Every structure is written in structure tokens, then in C-alpha cells.
Amino acid sequence: MSIEKVTIPSISSSKMGKEFYTVLSVELGNTTIKSIIITTNIKTNKSYELNKCVDLTRNVDNPGDSEEVFGHTIWNKPLSGQVIEKAVSRIIKKSLSEVGLDVSDLDFVVRSTGVVALSSLSYHMDVIIKSLSNGCLNAGIKPSQMMAPFSINNIPEHIRKSSFFNNIKFDGSIVGVASPKKTGVVSNEMESQLVTAGIKLASKSSTVDYRNPVISIDMGTTLAGEVVDDSKPYGKLVCNYIGLAGGISDIILRGCDVIEDNMSTIDIANNQNNIQFNEDILHKHTIKLHEFIDIMKVPKNLDEFGQVIDLTLQKQENINIIGSRINNSKKLITTFNNITQDYTNSEILLQIDDMYAYFIKRLIDQTSKLNIIQPKTTLGITGRAGITGYKPYFIEKYLNNSFDNILFTPDGLALGALMMARCMNSLGTPINPVGGSRGGMCIMQQRIKLSKKR
């Protein structure tokens, strides 16, 4: 089993030529707000990071007295349209100014959010998306920089020769995965699609061929991800992941008074480089903790699971849903507190790393029970609760050669937003494709043939 960690290399704007396609991705999450500027050399299909700004969602302004609070994040941070607009506009301007760029240097801007995974906010999707858009407009972004092109002339001139727009227009499919027949199957559906696309893009900076069939797992505050088969020309979504992920450790550490009530694991400094540990003891404690964490196929009679799901249309699609939730938060916190009462911060985080590695194992075990994992499936993991610390090391131990390759990468959602922008502009790279099947050829001609039939 090959394990590979990949990060997007950085580049100076002065080294970019006409063959570069530059996208700003702004993301509103339960824990962080990110503005990431990424550029791709369309000829080589290699991507580079120009800048990344991260703010904590808990630090955004509170709504004013005259503002309507339409919902809260998972950590009870009140949100209004105006609050989102201000936060988005501010971080976009900051990310551009830090590297001396202007909005005119951007070819496209994509907005995404993880907070709509919350059942209490999924019904306010339109409000959130509108607020994200208004924040972009307030930062100087033009509407044309956020819209799919209506003709080849709407695509930036310097990149038109690389576009297949006149052959095939955007049909909703992102990086070789078919668009769902219906939207709203689960409230984090778009987030999961983008994560898969983002890991596929990141793989181009690795030696791993992360193309269909794939499993993507986003271990952010909430759990997202999906299982995609190897159907042709587009892979089909056969399973969604939902529930709590990084939020579980945040709840534990708050309950144990390791962190304050508005903090998360990202606030804990640690030094795990030279820490000594006994894997058997760690695993023994992990098993105790997982008694209070459910990871299972979500029953179809539920409309909420792990705080983060809307299942109103689940019965209309033949898609499996596997979820995670805490079944007894009081016992989980008490057990963790008893285990770690004499631990240092590094030892506490080490126990959390093992807990999450076993979380991934259980997630894969549940998926395997459904008989939907095809041979040669590649696993991709992103998010703070899946890639930091010793988690990759423990994950490799727990999965024990279940996959030929496992890819770890940060910022999967933001990278996926970049890929969606490329797909919307029909910017394919036949010589080094992101879509298609593992080890296979570019599927562009198959897509064009299918498009003509439609």
C-alpha cells in the first residue's frame, strides 16, 4: 500500500504566463473562512498556490440589532446575510493585497460553504449563497467572473485556445463524475462533489493516479465525501458520507476543559515530532472511546443524523448514506477525561489521532459491507481530522493494505472549487487528464459523443 501526502506548491505571480488559469476560491465553514488563490498551467495540468488566507468563523462580527439571524454554525455562531457579506469581502481583499494582485488578475471566482451541511441551515442555502455572492461583488469581483460562460467569447481570451467549449458545454458533471439526477439528496452534496474534484486535482502533484473509482473523505468539522464507481464515461455516485468529524474532538476537548467553549483542536499547539507512544495502549483507549461514536448506514426513516443531514430526498435516489454521530456525549467526554487526565497536550492529540484513524477504518468497514468498493479504488483524505499529526501513520496501520494507494491533501474543498471553475469553462487537459478512469485515456471524445446524443 502506497501512502502519499501532497501539498500544492507555491508560485510567484511574476512567473505566470498566458497559459495559466487563476481562480480564487472563498469558503465559509463552521470553523474557518478561507480565501485561496490557485493558478493552473493548463498545458501541464500542474497547479500552484499563490496565496491562502484563513480566518476563524467564530471571530466574524455578530449580527447587528437590525439584522435577521437566519441560523447558527455548529458552534452556535449566529449568522446573518450581512455578516457573511462582510467576512467574505474582507478576506478576499486581504488575500489579493498580500500578494499584490487585483480582481482583474482573476479568471474566475468560486464560492463554497460547509455550513449548509447543518440541518438547521440547509433550508437557508439560497440566503447563504446570495450572501457569498454579494460579498464577492463588494470586494470588486465582476458577475462575469462567477458565472458559467454562455459562449466562447465569455471565456478569458488568453485561455480560449485551451477550452473545449465549442465541442462540449458544462453539463453539471465535475471531473469525470456524473451530476446527480436530483439535488438535495443530502445537504452536503455539493461539498462532497467538490472534495472529490479537489483531491483529483491535488493528485496531479503526486505520483498517485487518483481517478475513478475513488473514495473521498473530508474530515473537516463535519464529515463529507463520497464513493464513486468506474462507470463510463462518467463515474456514478454510489455513497455519500455525512455527520460529525473534527467536531467530535472539539466537543470532547471542550467538555474536558482542555480548550474554551468557542475553540477547537486547531487552537492547541503540540510537539509530536519526538513523542514516544505505545500503540497497543492507544488502540485500547480508542476502542473505549468509539463505544460512544456511531458510524453506520443511515436508516431511511431519519431526516437528521449527526446534526448535519437533510434526508428529504434520500428515498428518491439509489444512493447509500453512511453517517457518524456521538451517541452519548457525556460518557464520551468522561471516558476521554479519565484516559488523558495526566497527559500532556501532545499526548492528548496523539490519542485523538488514533481515535480518528480508527474512525476512518470504521467508515471504510461500513462501506465494504455495502459491496460498493470496486477493485483498484483509490482512497483520498482531506480535512484537519484526517491528515494532521500522526493520523496518516495510524490510518495506514488500521487499513492494512486495503487500498493500493492512499492520498492525503489539505484544502480539498477549495481545490475542488477550482476544478469546478475549469469544468464550467470546459478547460480539459487531454495529455494529462484529471477525469476518467485510473490508468485510462482522456474521456473527452466519449463526453463529446455522449453530449451529441443528448
TrEMBL record:
<dbReference type="Pfam" id="PF09887">
    <property type="entry name" value="DUF2114"/>
</dbReference>
<protein>
    <recommendedName>
        <fullName>Methanogenesis marker 14 protein</fullName>
    </recommendedName>
</protein>
<dbReference type="InterPro" id="IPR008303">
    <property type="entry name" value="Methan_mark_14"/>
</dbReference>
